[in-house]
Amino acid sequence: MARIPVLHENDPATPADAKAFLEEAAQSRGQLVNIYRAMANRPEAGQAFLTLAHTVYRGRTTLAPKHAELAYLTATVVNNCFY
């Protein structure tokens, strides 16, 4: 069982600001993974993370998005980071 609650966008008990964050995260990433659902407990922290991730992985680059994702996934496998 998760120690940090995992919020779901379709749960009526999920606060509006958390739902807004989840919607933005889904649009930004293309899919909604559980790390964003956990971050939705603190939408302002999640928003800061989205900004950081965009700056690091998508900001001012000459790489096409598919090539940037390939580089990211390659580094993940090489470093044994499977989450």
List keywords for this structure.
4 helices, mainly alpha, single chain, globular, 83 residues
| Number of alpha- plus pi-helical segments | 4
Main beta-sheet strand count, sense and barrel state: none
Q: Report strand %.
A: under 5%
- Poorly predicted regions are none
Task: Report on this structure.
- Helix 1 packs parallel to helix 3 (43-57).
- The chain contains four helices and no strands.
- With 83 residues, the chain is an all-alpha fold.
- The two termini are 17 Å apart.
Question: Which helices and strands appear, and what pairs or packs with what?
Answer:
Layout: H1 16-29, H2 34-39, H3 43-57, H4 65-78
Helix pairs in contact: 1-3
Please summarize what this structure is.
Helices cover 59% and strands 0% of the residues. By secondary structure, it is mainly alpha-helical. The chain is globular.
